[in-house]
Structures are given as C-alpha cells and as structure tokens.
Amino acid sequence: MKTCSLSAAVAAILLSGSALAQSTGAPLAPSISAPVEAAFSRMLAAPSVKAALAAIEADDERTLRDQIELTEIPAPPFKEAVKAAEYLKRVKALGFADAKIDSEGNVIARRAGKGGGPTLVVSAHLDTVFPEGTDVKVKKQGERYSAPGIYDDNRGLAALLSVMRAMQSGALKTVGDVWFVATTGEEELGDLRGVKALFRDNKNIDGFISLDGLGIDRVVNAATGSRRFKISFIGPGGHSFAAFGMPSATHAMGRAIAKMADVETPSEPKTTYTVGTVKGGTSVNAIAADAEIGLDMRSNSAAELAKLEEKMLAIARAAADEENARWKQPGRVKAEIKLVGDRPAGAQARDSLITQVGVRAAQSLGVKDFYIVASSTDSNTPISMGIPALTLGGGGVGGGSHSPGEWYSPLNAWRGPQNTLLAALALVGVDGVTEPLLAKRPR
Question: Can you say how many angstroms the Cα of residue 167 is from the centroid of all Cα atoms in its chain?
Fold first, then answer.
C-alpha cells in the first residue's frame, strides 16, 4: 500500500519486532562518522543507485508474490531441500548461472565486483519452526496475509530476491563481491548449521548482513547466545507397589526442575533460561525408568552464559544423587547430559562502522528513531568470530511470529530491500562512486 506515509509505517512497525526492542530500553542510534556520511552522500546522488532504488519500489508487488509463493513451500526443520531447489531456480533465472546448493543445503549466488574489494554476504534463512504437515496456505483478509512463516523468514527471502533483481537489472557495479545466500538451519535445533558451514568452508568472507524480522528501524548488532541441552534421567524402573523404594527418574527430574526454577540470573547482561519440554515414564502405576527435560539458556554475554550452564548442569547431577540418597533400594538413577544447541554470543561496539552503516541506510529512507539490539540470528556466527555483521528487517509489518496465526502486511514494504541495498553498497563500494567501507580481513 504505497499511499501510507513513512511516519505511519514507523508507528505500525511497533506491532512487529521493534516493539520488543523498545521494551528492552534499547540505546539510541550512534553518531555517523565523516567517512560513512561521505559515502552515503555520494551513493545517494549516483544515477545508478537512484535507478536501483526505484527498481526495488517498482518491484514491490512482485516481491510480495515471491513471499507468498515461498511461504507455501514447506520448509520444516532439517527439511529445507524442496524450498532450496525452488529458490535456486529463481536465483538462476536472475542471471546467476553459477549459483549452487552447498553441502549443508545453503543456496549460494556470487556477484563479482571489479576486483580487489571485500566480500560481503547478504542472507536470509530457508527454514521455519513449523513441523511437517503444517498448513502453510496463505490467506488474505484486507491488506493482511496470514500463514505460518509468512514473514519469518519468507519476507527475508523475498527481499533478498528483490535486491538481486535491482542489482542485476541496472548498470550497478560494485567494487567488492556480494554473495547472496539462503541458509538452512537458522531455527530451533537447526543450531545455525547453515551459516556455521558457510563460514567453515569459506575463509574469505569479510562482512555479513542477515535479513530477519521486518522493521528497518531495528538494527541487530549483537548476538544473544544460547546453549540447549537434553538432560535424561535413567533409572531401574519397577512396579509402583511391588518395587516401591526404587529411585524414580521422574522424581529426579522433578527435583532438578524445582531447583532450576529458583536460580536467579542478571538482568544486565540479560540472561535467561527455561525448561521448555518434559517427558518420560511408562504408566501411572510404574516407577519411571526414564525421564527427559529440554533446557534452554540464553545470554547476551558469553561469560554469563557459561556461569549459568555450570550451575544448571550441577543441579541436574545433584538431583539424581538426591533421588538415590532418598531411597534404600540398590537401583540408581543417573543423569545423562547432551548438548543439542550452541549459538555463540558476541558483541560489537554501538558506534562500530557496520552499525553506523545499518543506521545511515535507514536514515536515508526517513527513519529517525532506532533500536540497536541484541538477538539470536544467523549473525551470531560472524559476530562471535569478530567479523562485522548486522541483522536488518525485510520491510512491512507483521505479528505472531512462530505461531500458526503469523501475519504480514506490506506497508511500505519496499523500504526493506531498499535499506538492505544501501547498506550492502556502502560496505562493498560502488564502482566509480565510492570505495568500500568494509575492510578486507587478513587472509
């Protein structure tokens, strides 16, 4: 809906991810340094950049069609192959003949610059949180589109295609190389496997932008780390009456959960935990031989996350010991601990060059108020490695992320890919207009 004003768009964005950022008391935008300001001034005056921005706005309806069509291709955890194949087909149709799917299922399309510049990855993720069999048919009511995954992250995938079309259709040439990547495994127990493999297999990446979320007033420049464990309690089991006195796996689990729930964590840096799943036992009249919890721990600080992990795993082991000490029978319960998720934490300075670029790009589109926040996205991996990275929004507004009622409205939606284009061009440089702001890392 192109009749809406930008101020209205910014207000509406508070319905989406930016509202969460605001509630955390996120800091204001950094000051823009002279080199960054100069680069944007030259870029915004360049005919090739103006043409690319106009092409993205003209492409708005097509981008929405991409978003709807991609949403209706299921991509449950660890089963992104069908969507990856379709995405590769669309990417090749844009002229990326050498685009490929790598060993981890990522779709990678490389766009070469004139040479000698940095390499920037711009990405979005293929997978959703929804299990196989979920109805992903998009339903429209007014200007609202509803379906599981409609914006997380199918908006990011569609915005990425819009940026690629704008760069391919015009005379826009960059100094550095831009890789467009659709990653696997960003959600749930995917554990960032796609982006981890990308950086494992490619040592020449100098910077990274992830498209995840919607609002362009939200700049993610820090990584909320997480550690996830499956903690199993294994015991002898037995009949509830005849074997009474045997230690119980579910009782040990209960002891652990109760003590975990009393653990206090710092509010700054924000550090959290939850026992998200529980299961176990055989029947109501049996002493449980097995029980299991799923433990999630998160922090914006790697050090605090490590402290919390040590404390929680000690509680799990102690719970088994306490259950064994309670009973006189010889059978014993033991705790088995398995790491099932590891998303590294990391931070960048609020006034880092890449943060300035993310802010200045949105300022070019009229945004005045910003939320500079930490989150858990594909950017976790490069940030933890000391590689400059940001997560930016794909444009539009929405709500209900990760729920069956997820919805999206294309309010000034083209500003998402425009914002991404400007940030990417500033980092890699526009041939004949600007030099790259992104530095090449030592090889």
Answer: 24
C-alpha distances in Å from residue 377, one per residue of 123, 173, 343, 354:
11, 29, 9, 16
Neighbours of 134 (CB within 10 A): 14
- Distance, CA of 263 to CA of 106 (rounded, Å): 39
Q: Report d(CA 358, CA 202) in Å as an integer.
A: 24
* In contact, 307 and 299? CB cutoff 8 Å: no
Output the pLDDT for position 27. 53
Q: If you search the block for the tokens 């425009």, which residue do you land on? A: 418
CB 222 within 8 A of CB 268: no
- Tokens representing 102? 């790598």
Burial of 321 (0-12, 13-18, 19+ CB in 10 A): middle
Question: What is the DSSP-derived secondary structure letter of residue 189?
Answer: G
Letter for the amino acid at 81? A
In terms of Cβ atoms closer than 10 Å to its own Cβ (0-12, 13-18, 19+), residue 27 is exposed
In this predicted structure, what is the pLDDT of residue 170? 81
| Max CA distance (Å), the chain | 85
Compute CA 338 distance to the chain's CA centroid, rounded to the nearest angstrom: 23
Whether the ω angle into residue 269 lies within 30 degrees of 0, i.e. cis, is yes
Q: What is the reported pTM?
A: 0.89
Instruction: Please give the pLDDT value at position 9.
Output: 36
Sheet of 144-146, strands arranged across: 139-141, 144-146, 407-409, 397-399
Residue 151 to residue 211: CA distance in whole angstroms: 11
Which positions of the chain have pLDDT values less than 70? 1-27
Per-residue CA distances from 237 to 248, 283, 287, 328 (Å): 7, 11, 5, 14
